[in-house]
Write a structure and sequence with these properties.
This protein is of the alpha+beta class. It is about 55% helix and about 10% strand. The strands form 4 sheets. Strands 1, 2, 4, 7, 9 and 12 form a 6-stranded antiparallel sheet that branches. Strand 10 (about 165-170) and strand 11 form a beta hairpin. Helix 3 runs antiparallel to helix 4, helix 9 (about 380-390) packs antiparallel against helix 27 and helix 17 packs antiparallel against helix 21. The longest helix is centred in the middle third of the chain and has 28 residues, at about 470-495. The chain is globular, with a radius of gyration of 33 Å.
């Protein structure tokens, strides 16, 4: 026993660390067996068509239903919506899946009709998984075999929802599309492995973190750096890119900045200028619908893992313009993440590894700044360490969010100010310390205006500490901060301070603009294109083009495309409506759409249009007139085509001023063609449009009724309404703000931690705030400095609330957008200013070891809580 006691005493730190790690691992294994493994049956499905407003007549024995469809996804099961006629049908339902073009049977399935629930999707698993292929078309056939009197009906849309696809019932074509749900992926054993890998890495981090804290061999600043990086990486794995609050906008800004840098080094003559806030740039293949969905699921993990080690086919200076919003025009807080993205461009990494590299750079910069804050703080080091290791802090630090660098700068600046005020025994600051103070404060000030009170801590530094001309230095610092604030945030401040019109006035203005638009559209519709003068032999169908196809409307332009290039094609209204919507929403340009018709694979391979037909088609499409019917111009255009070719003539037509005069009033962007896509397949273009719509659907837009907000002018004239807004918000949102400050609400406030973890985190902040013996003579701000520190923290909170009030539409019942995480930059200062003074811990080193141990264990529990919440979705 004596030897065992001596062995334990000698290796006490390692034994306790091993015990803590073992406890974490044991809990993880229990959770994996009880909650994770049963979720391995989760599947991912996509709606091929989700409209079942119509139920067919009952299917009799021997009658079948067939539906053609296309998808690039793997097919594991197919789901349909059925209705019942009479009693619950008994018997079996046979499914056959074949290749629609070759007739090859790919898979079969048989299900019991007794299991069908009417009005809901009933899924039939395929006996053979069908791997996805680009452009592949399928034919699914349903055949009932009844053993009772009940009959089945099938749900389908009223009108074809999928153009170029057909539905037949009893051998007759039906104008509709079968409601069809395709299961494309099952999570299987991957989920358990992923959970255990993350839990195992967390347990390893706990072991090394607890051992280092108990042994005291690693100084706290270095230990904080290591733990922030380790746990931050785990957060980045559990909540992959696009999961952090508004991260999509921060990613857009980082990638756009990286594209600008790449453009500087590009051999291309084109140079990227200022990018509007509603526009972004990425490489051509930088897209992943699963990750960009923002709602983290188990399939997000699987997609992230599958794509983590991919390379990109794009050159480092490749760029694609996207109609996606950025955050703002201030690049300061995106330098680190953009540098990581740029490195990904140079290394030709795929989209996912480039995203992770950008996140890693942000995390490393924050970890370095947080460690520096712990090192430079004259007291309260445990407070800075605890604030840096909160779940919300790590969630933001391990993302593209600008709050990552903002938090690091705020922590470091606060620590440097406290050191300048309370340390040094009145000696003047060294030039490098003064420079660090000025740089961190000046970078912090324009980042977010609401944290100006925190930046004002510089003014509390005693004049003796600033050396010669202290007043001039403070004045210069204040002037630099204000100039940067106005320079980077001038437009935002102007919008916030400008009095908004009353709702009635706003409606009147909108009505006037709508009337003007209507009048302009009417004038454009009144314009008639000149009719062809004479017919040209061999091209009669051009001279007979319907007059409505020559109108100045988007629909007429689309119908001209079909009529002039595929006159015999059976074009559905839904197909025309698809391209009309794409043009009006800016998802495709008139030039690219025309390219997919005039230079489609079929047109180029089979030469479906002769030279004269090509000239006629292009001129009718883009000029509303047939230039080949003009005798004097006919030979001129023939010669131009012979000299320059079809591509250059196509460019000449769509880039002409006459074309812009025709299409601009319709709101159609003419744009340019894609020089790298000859031929251009129209289905490929349609897929790109669908992807653009999916991405845009996740973007935030401001409704017209939300433009009237609580501006300062409105607040001064509506004080009772503003007070009521604040009171209602305090009642309704205080709970979320308390949780969100430490990380009880993560992602888009969609992941909630159990209240036990939230209380534990606040308890750890309280433990960190307690002074301890052996921590130095000065342990907390005292006297007037304590008052000023408290006012600075409260000022940041007040400005954050006021900023959200300014953006709140007057029709809202509570303050719009306020989150507890907005108070994080001022959290260390607030804890130190309001912390207890009379309670004192026995020993600083033991207090630090206990705090780090508790933080490690708590972080592991939080990570497991997050993963279980994601699995439960």
């Amino acid at each position: 026993m004596t030897k065992l006691h001596e062995l334990y005493t000698r290796h006490r730190a390692g034994a306790l660390a091993l015990l803590a790690a073992g406890l974490c691992l044991a809990v993880s294994l229990a959770l994996a067996l009880a909650l994770v493994r049963p979720a391995a049956a989760k599947s991912l499905a996509v709606h091929i068509s989700d409209d079942y407003t119509v139920m067919s007549d009952p299917l009799e024995p021997g009658e079948t239903v067939t539906q053609t469809f296309s998808t690039d996804e793997d097919l594991l099961a197919l789901g349909f919506v059925f209705g019942l006629s009479g009693d619950q049908p008994a018997g079996q339902l046979d499914l056959t899946l074949a290749d629609a073009d070759t007739g090859e049977v790919l898979a079969r399935s048989t299900g019991e009709m007794a299991n069908i629930i009417p009005g809901q999707y009933t899924t039939l698993g395929l006996d053979t998984p069908v791997p996805g292929e680009a452009g592949r078309r399928y034919l699914v056939t349903l055949s009932p075999r009844y053993t009772g009197d009940g009959r089945l009906c099938v749900g389908h849309s009223d009108g074809a929802a999928l153009w170029e696809e057909s539905l037949t019932i009893r051998g007759e074509t039906v104008d509709g599309t079968l409601a069809l749900l395709a299961t494309t992926r099952r999570i299987g054993g991957f989920l358990t492995r992923y959970f255990l890998i993350v839990a195992g890495l967390a347990s390893v981090t706990v072991f090394f973190g607890v051992r280092a804290a108990l042994r005291g061999a690693v100084r706290l600043p270095r230990l904080v750096f290591r733990l922030v990086v380790a746990f931050g990486l785990l957060y980045s794995v559990v909540l992959p890119p696009y999961a952090a609050p508004d991260e999509k906008y921060h990613i857009n800004q980082s990638f756009t900045l990286a594209c600008r840098w790449a453009n500087w080094f590009s051999g291309d003559e084109w140079r990227m200028g200022n990018v509007p806030i509603e526009m972004s740039y990425r490489r051509e293949h930088d897209a992943n619908a699963m990750l960009q969905d923002e709602n983290t699921t188990v399939f997000t993990w699987q997609e992230w893992a599958d794509e983590l080690l991919t390379l990109s086919p794009d050159e480092f200076d490749s760029h694609v313009e996207l109609a996606e919003y950025q955050t703002d025009r201030n690049p300061i807080l995106y330098l680190a993440s953009a540098a990581g993205v740029f490195a990904g461009f140079v290394l030709r990494l795929g989209f996912v590894p480039t995203l992770m590299l950008g996140r890693l750079c942000n995390l490393l910069v924050f970890a370095a700044l947080a460690a520096a804050a712990v090192r430079r703080a004259p007291f309260g080091r445990r407070v800075f360490a605890a604030a840096a290791l909160l779940p919300m802090t790590l969630h933001l630090a391990a993302s593209f969010s600008r709050d990552s660098m903002l938090l690091g700068l705020a922590f470091l600046f606060t620590a440097l100010c406290l050191e300048a005020v309370f340390g040094g025994e009145g000696r003047p600051l060294r030039p490098r310390d003064l420079a660090a103070l000025a740089v961190s404060g000046i970078l912090l000030a324009p980042a977010k205006v609401v944290y100006l009170p925190l930046a004002a801590l510089f003014l509390l530094i005693p004049n003796l500490r600033l050396g010669a001309r202290p007043v001039l230095k403070k004045a210069g610092y204040a002037a630099a901060c204000l100039l940067l604030v106005l320079g980077f945030n001038g437009a935002m401040l102007t919008d916030s301070l400008t009095a908004a019109p009353e709702p009635a006035a706003a409606e009147q203005t909108a009505g006037t603009e709508q009337a003007a638009d209507t009048e302009q559209a009417a004038e454009a519709d009144a314009r008639q294109a000149p009719a062809p003068e004479t017919a040209v032999e061999g091209y009669d169908y051009y001279t007979a083009i319907p007059e409505e196809y020559l109108a100045a409307t988007t629909e007429a332009f689309v119908r001209r495309l079909y009529y002039c290039t595929e006159p015999d094609a059976q074009v559905t209204d839904s197909e025309v409506a698809f391209w009309v919507q794409a043009l009006e929403e800016g998802d495709v340009t008139a030039a690219r759409l025309g390219q997919s018709f005039l230079f489609s694979p079929t047109a180029m391979e089979q030469n479906t249009l002769s030279d004269d037909e090509f000239i006629q088609a292009a001129s009718l499409i883009y000029l509303d007139r047939n230039v080949m019917a003009e005798e004097q111009a006919r030979e001129v255009f023939r010669q131009q085509l012979a000299d320059k070719g079809r591509t250059d003539m196509f460019k000449a037509f769509y880039s002409s001023s006459e074309c812009h005069e025709i299409l601009d009033p319709c709101g159609v962007t003419v744009g340019t063609e894609d020089p790298s896509a000859y031929p251009l397949d129209r289905q490929t273009l349609a897929d790109q449009v669908e992807q653009a719509r999916a991405v845009r659907a996740s973007q935030s837009t401001v409704a017209a009724e939300d433009t009237v907000t609580y501006t300062p002018g409105y607040v001064l004239t509506h004080l009772p309404a503003t007070l009521a807004l604040v009171v209602r918000s305090a009642v309704a949102d205080t709970d979320d703000a308390i949780r969100g400050l430490v990380g009880g609400l993560l992602s888009y406030n969609s992941l909630e931690l159990a209240w036990g973890w939230v209380l534990a985190l606040y308890a750890l902040l309280g433990l960190a705030a307690l002074p301890a013996r052996g921590a130095g003579d000065i342990q907390l701000p005292e006297g007037r400095y304590r008052v000023w520190c408290a006012l600075a923290a409260l000022g940041c909170a007040a400005l954050a609330v006021a900023g959200c009030i300014v953006w709140t539409p007057v029709r809202y019942e509570t303050i719009y957008g306020f989150q507890g995480r907005y108070l994080l930059p001022a959290l260390p200062l607030a804890v130190l200013a309001f912390g207890p003074r009379r309670i004192q811990l026995a020993d600083e080193s033991r207090a630090t070891a206990a705090l780090v141990t508790a933080l490690c264990l708590t972080q592991t529990g939080v990570l497991l809580n997050i993963m279980l919440a994601v699995i439960a979705r």
